[in-house]
Amino acid sequence: MIAAGQLIALIDFSTWVRVLTLADYNTRLVVLATTLLGLSAGIVGSFTLLRKRALLGDALSHATLPGIGLAFLIAPIFALNGKSLPVLLAGAAISGSVGMLSILMIRNLTKLKEDAALGIVLSVFFGGGLALLGIAQQTPEGHAAGLESFIYGKTASIISQDAWWIFGAGAASLTVLVLLYKEMKLLCFDDGFAASQGYPAVGLDFVLMALVVLVTIVGLQAVGLVLMIALLVIPAAAARFWTAQLLRMTLVAGLIGGVSCMIGSLISAIVPRLPSGAMIVLTSAVFFLASMLFGVQRGVVIQWWRRRSTRRRIDRRHVLRGVYELAESVSPAGEAESGIWVTTTALMQKRSWSTGRMIAGIKRLQDEGCLRVRQQDVTLTAVGLIEARRLTREHRLWELYLIAHADVATERVDRDAERIEDCLEPVMIEELELLLEHSTIGSRVPTSPHEIEIAPSSTGGQT
Amino acid sequence: MSDDTGWLWALDGWIIAAGVLCAIASSLVGNFLVLRRMSMLGDAVSHAVLPGLAAAFLITGSRHSLPMFVGAAIVGVLTALLTQWIRSFGKVDEGASMGVVFTTLFALGLVMIVRAADTVDLDPGCVLYGAIEFTPLDTIRWLGVDVPRVVITLGIVSLLNLTFILVAYKELKLTSFDPSLADTMGLRSSWVHYTLMTLVAITAVASFESVGNILVVAMMVVPAAAASLLTDRLPWLIVTSAIIGTLSAILGHLAAIHVPAAFGFASTSTAGMMALAAGSLFLLAMVFGPKNGLVIQAVRRQHLALSILGDDVIAYIYRDEEKQSVAPEHATPVSRQWLQKRLLATTGATSVVLWWYRATGRLEKSQLGYRLTDKGRRSAVLLVRSHRLWEQYLVDQAGMASDRIHGQAERLEHFTTRDVRNKLERETEFPQSDPHGSPIPAERESDRQG
Predict the structure, then answer these.
(1) What is the CATH number assigned to the segment(s) B297-449?
(2) CATH of range A303-462; options 3.40.50.620, 1.10.10.10, 3.30.450.90, 3.40.50.740
(3) What is the per-residue pLDDT across A226-249, written as a single tens digit (0 to 9) for each?
(4) Which of B35, B43, B49 to probe the A interface (max A CBs under 10 A)?
(5) The pTM is what?
């Protein structure tokens, strides 16, 4: 959709230089102000996210509208200019606070949940605000007031005053969060415990919401409603994928928020007619997507990788033990030896696993040097035998323990033992040996306490 | 209606009809959103559909309503789906994933519109917010009457939602109240869920392109939340929320005309006022609700506190009579101040209780102070009997130390019925006195003699 003229603008090198070196006063201001806002919103947003109130900013930013309308309407009575920023900000702050108290009241005094409280406050306050603005538009001054721009923002025309407001609000909220860090942490992770320890949970909630109101109000008139919500939610949600630790999460969220704002507003300055607010949201959405995929703590890829390696570890265990048990069943000495060949068909029948998974498991063990493969047959190598013996022994020790001490029925121990065997530490094994006081001490593999199911004609010949 | 506000049934009637239908359609699905703790979905969808509208417009090149509706509905459903995916794949909580999805989609739509703005004139405000005031202007002739298109659309959506609720009632009920039970029973909750999400998206789109988005957001949450404070049963919840929604629409339109007029202004945003009216009705339900309202709760608490204080007063006077070694009729009356000090009660509460007990003939007042009537003494006997039996029981059967039982018995005595007293007596093998040595009075005076 980019027209030819825009393409030329895109490759116009001087624009790039001018924007990236922040040569224009206006660009500098917009980038600085939005970056500061992204930083503080990311940090405050982390706490509201963990408090499971991510959409608090949504509700509170809508809740400021009636205050703006009312401030505009009644300011002339006190001989103030209804369009002056401090008057409108005061109005927004007051109605935002009333909204915040309403949320707390609905949540604490009725059986309704968080989301309903947010939805009620959002829609009713915004409706009231629309009604008030409808009246305000009829006043002689109100017609061109552009009161709505307060809600929808005017990112490109940020003035230095806005930047100072944002800086002030950011600094104030950071100070509060640093001072109340421990309390807020407790509130976010376990409010019941916080209350039982004598922390004023409602008071802390109030402080947190007040911070959201503060950041929202200064942000609203600079960047608009939807961007403000996005800045409170997206960086914090993205940061959650990178770390499980609160301090790091707030820092990452602040970083993502700040960087998205910087990149977004720069793109908007370079390419004509890309609204900076929307570009900031989209940039942070890209960060979110990247974090969701590649985040090292809870990212989709790392989770898939973790699941895969767990599955492989378990498959390896099952293949080795399966081959061991099959070999054991045909061994004249009653113990598996290296060089007893068993068929993969028999191995397949031992468990309900997919052929693909079993073959892949055998392949990996072959590469590892634990198994030797001859067409359809496999056998343990010397190394593989030691490993298989260890694994089988762990499994059977645990089975014996379950039978002797946990009163688990013999038919069920196999499955129960499989669930736990992967988590057994060497120390546990030693304890099991002592507990069982069996002839199991040493490296001998105890005989299985239950019958091992082996399909007929399951084994290959001996070499 | 008064002439100076210019009420016209042809206009205002249709505006109210549109509002009512929007309220009904929204509150029908809204109940389940509130129950599933997804109240913010209406808000999210109504912001998120912007790229759908923009895409439909860019593709067809017209502002025809059908393609726009389809585009918006598709993105609306997509919003619900994406929210669900981010929630399950990324393990992000509902609200946050909703926030991520709708702000991103909104920004995308904004960019599309701004980029397209050189070829066409498409104002985001105009795309986003229909106005309920313009409802009567766009009409379709139906059965010989000029019916506004909006009314027909919203009527169809209401019917659609109603049909879905009736057809999937059992599944909706179970999956909303107890999703894990629904899963164990093998109910496929996902199709119910996704159909519900689709209907939410359709309702939101149909409503906001005609009557404005704030109205649908309000009507999805507020009537349902108000109704849930009034009733616990699902059928009543649905009916009540529809009634509250209807009332809000009517009151809202009246308020939009008459409230500004009182201050010398012309009428204001009807949709805004309808939301405000819904909010007021919610507040009424929250404060004056007959079952869970704040007032009734406060009254119940106060009533309980006063009746416990009343019990304490007569039991205290009874014990005082016991200590004086004269016949009860000749015991010294007690003053209010003395009772108040002993029972750590306020003047107000004690005065109310004393007045009430005199009025019901359980206390009598003389120059010297208060004393029990025979009726009052009978009540006091039962209380003291409960108290002492409990003390005996707690020491005897529950093995508590005798210095710790008084507080416990003090709490239990107010809620002990005759049956329980008899059982306690049997369990403790018919004791004559409590662990502190005070006599346990008989249930009735005649019992002692008999």
Answers:
(1) 1.10.10.10
(2) 1.10.10.10
(3) 888 899 999 999 998 998 888 999
(4) B43
(5) 0.78
